[in-house]
Amino acid sequence: MTAQQYPVRELVASRRPHRKDAARNYDALLAAAREAFAEHGAEASLEDIAKRAGVGIGTLYRNFPSRRELFESVYADEVNELVRVAEEVAEREPWEALTSWLTRFTDYMVTKRAVREALDDESEIFDACRESMYAAGGPLFVRAQEAGVARRDMDFGDLLRMVAGITATVFVDEAQRDRVLGIALDGVRVRA
Fold it and tell me: Which domains can be identified in the chain, with CATH numbers?
């Protein structure tokens, strides 16, 4: 599957305005919402999101007529970023490519938790995002396995669940989270 075929990219692209100023506001709203969801979860204030983005609440509602559409767009945008990172790191050494992608995946998990609180599991966005994420990150893991630097007795789903479990834990700071993630990934890495 090529990058242009990812259904999640189409979702965000279809909602993004074409005018430069409107597109800039749209992007600012997504970034502000991502920050607000990371800090306050699903209960983040729409007024706060608009203020962070430097726009009025009317601009937020023009772009995202419902809270659900905002959550879905932020979630899809996060997955698009995971796809972009996978493409960006694909030519690196297999272990470095995989761990670079997983580092971005840990940031994605913060947003995912907030979105999952707000949307039911029946939302079509979850299936589309999962497919895109697996199509982007899965080959990085397989490549690391084929290069002999990642365990072969696990699959990509196992790896994502392990990392997701780590990100669900409360840490003192990001440095501690990254240290714990590094320890876990040492258990995945195969050394000569």
Answer: 3-186 (1.10.357.10)
